[in-house]
Amino acid sequence: MATKAYDKSFREEVYDKVDAGEEIKLCMQCGVCGITCPLRDEMTYGPRQIWSLIRAGKRDEVMNCSDIMLCTSCYTCKVRCPRGVKVIDVMHGLAHYALQEGIVPRENTSKFGKFFWNSIYKTGRIDETEVPMRYSMRRGPIHGIFETLEMMDIGRALLSHKRMHFKLGPGIPPSKKIKGIKGLKKMLDKAEAMSPGKEA
Amino acid sequence: MDKNYACYLCKGCGLGEALDFEALEEALEDSDISEVKDHEALCSPEGVALIQADIDGGVNAVLIGACSARVKTDEFTFGKEVLVERVPLREQGLWCSEAEYEDEEEAGEDRQMLADDYLRMHAAKLGKAEIGEPFQLEEDVEKGVMVVGGGVAGINAALAAAKAGAPVCLVEKEDALGGYLGKMAKLGPQSPPYQELQDTGLEELVAEVEAADNIKVFTGATVEKTEGAPGNFSVTLSNGESFRAGAIVQATGWNPYEAEKLADELAYGTSDKIVSNVQFEEKAKAGDLGGINGVAFIQCAGSRDENHLPYCSAVCCLVSLKQAMYVKEANPEAAVYVIYKDIRTPGQSEEVYRQAQELGVVFIRRGEDYPAISGSGPFAIETQDVTLNDTVEIEDLDMVVLATGMVPNNPSVVEPPLVALGMDQDEAAKLAEEAKAASDDWSVLNLEYRQGPNLPTLKYGYPDSHFICFPYETRRTGIYAAGAVRRPMRVTQATEDATGAALKAMQSTRAAEAGVAVHPRSGDDTFPDFFMQRCTQCKRCTEECPFGAINEDAEANPLPNPTRCRRCGVCMGACPERIISFTDYSVDMIGSMIKSIEVPDEDEEKPRVIVLACENDALPAIDLAAKNGAKWSPYVRFIPLRCLGSLNLVWIADALASGIDGILLFGCKRGDDYQCHFIKGSELANVRMSKISETLDRLVLESDRVRVEEIGFGEVDKIPGILDEFMETMEEVGPNPYKGF
Fold first, then answer.
1. I need a labelling partner for B479 at 20 to 30 A (CA). Which of B123, B166, B236, B428 fits?
2. Please, what is the end-to-end C-alpha distance for chain A in angstroms?
């Protein structure tokens, strides 16, 4: 990191536009979140430093950092934070905000999230076959077939235990929709419109 | 007094089975005590009634051979007319004396000798003790309190004393009451939910002082002279007024650490926009905080820095939080930074920290290095950011505030090292001169004390005597420190502190009236008596008294002020002529105790060791160790001392001359973090001991025979180890060659 002046514009952007963004004001830099995170070895900064970077105004470092998409929502940090900061909410808020801004901090996570979301938005449920299938095809059908073959054993076991149903390919046959899917879509659209930075 | 003795021995707690009571009775044959009774449980109502019946029948000196004097005090107190001496047969005899023996008979024999010795020792002490009259001042005891300093602590101390019924004289050097409270714009949040700044409340306080009819206020005045002692101070003020006071509360507050000294580190003085927190507060008070869009507070500006103020003032963090709130209140958009080492917001003030964070104040943790300030407004700061592990820059700052710490508004007194006492006189004078030069040459109270006009101070110039154990107590009896002069503190703490000190002050006037000691020997009605005909005017007592109790009269004789005395006995230990004694504690009494120990011949291979133990910490620790089941050699005899500082070297000589093989001295921790109840008692004992080794060499005795140990009450577990090791040393050194002479 090069020396760079503190810039208040990014922290104000976070406070205003990121879901739960104001929470980080209360962080007192104790580091419990960082040390408690099961993914700390995978992270470049960890939550505590992310907060510091936000306060320092380092937009690029934060928005491009895969850390904000690594959170698995285990909730340990949120439970342990002595200041009651909703660490997870901020992390997801940041990830969401980055995508909104056209930044993809972590390709795989964002793709998976998209398929996951689409499944819910279109059918009202998670299709356990559809979502992984689409995910494995994310880099084209050839790559998808190889990735699927690697998972063959698990797939077979899941099928035999009826944890997964058989499909020929994404959307073949199409997933079943829940009753009242139109209502659910309306709700989700409304929630989207209410999210920070999008209020009319 | 005519003494009518009786001795009572207890057979309870296993003493009955372990000891031969006929032999105990024989041990007292050489004493004046002829009447010896025993009882199955002396502390039972029947046992106490047995003693009381004899007292009613004329007995007035009672020797009780049972448990330690520290327990069963209610049962074995028989009023002021009866001398009671307790023999700790249980704790120091029975409980601790079952060291490993193959031969049970020998074990019993050793324990019996131990009990016999204790009985003889305490009988000897009882034989020399007297009942004295408590000291009474010739004048009427003045109950009024003088409070010096009219800030938040002074005003509250005056109000507290006045409410409790004492007339108060409140002296303030400025023309109006208020001190630093008067210079503050607002107080930080003081009550739940700790979110709103509050008014200082000074006007209400001053109105309350003015409304009180027993508070006399002297503004624009300082104390010119204070003479006398608790219960009878006479004070002269700079405006010519004079009055009597029974006790004094010094609440002279604090001064800000001089920001000028931070010119190199933090560019103080290069711009009028780089200000100290006190200057910032003044601006806030004047309503001069408009137009600030960026400000940085630099915490620990000089604090916790060996080159400036080595300690933490404990208030600067909160002050900066409050001042950050001023800025945010005036302009919520302002960028406010606090650059800190550690945010220290103890207790509920954490909520204030939280509130400042909620308002959007940005906190940056720096390391030990000071941030670099550049520019002449707007300023830029380059600082280490510990969390980011990088150097960061902050720009566009309209103002930089240096959070400086608190310095006590009291002259710093550096005491010459104690080793100077009794040293080569030229050398001692030189050390004293150096110490004087290092002391600040002014005075708050201008005391007419031989040891100087000022309160002795701890290492940072605070006049407390023991910060944790004895709050408010200074080393001058009857003078109590309150507020920021005692330790750095904030307004709420100073308010509480003031009440504590005011009540202590009133307590000391009551003690002077009753002729008893104040803390830590509260209620002790003995006092040092000087046999002046034999005084050689060596002045050691006047120099060594930790409380400056002894002045000098016109003929250069020591002039004791018993109401200033705390009854530690340091003067008694200091006196080479041994002319200072208490009615129940004297050089002769302890000497007789030592001499009444029976020393077996060399060929019996039963060495004797005495332990002179401080009764404040070491003795309770010994009792507790015994109670916890610790065992040690039955050849050890404990002798309680009021303070190890009352140790007179003649005891060492007496003991060695009578064939005692070794002497252990148990005192409290000494040095900067001393735990001595009388400040320098254990230090003094150590200095005295450093001089004894050459005497021992001259007597062809090994200096290993005498050793000083520091024992805290928390170090109970260490005691058996120390004793065992010392007994081993005694075995190596061999028997005292003076045995049998």
1. B428
2. 38
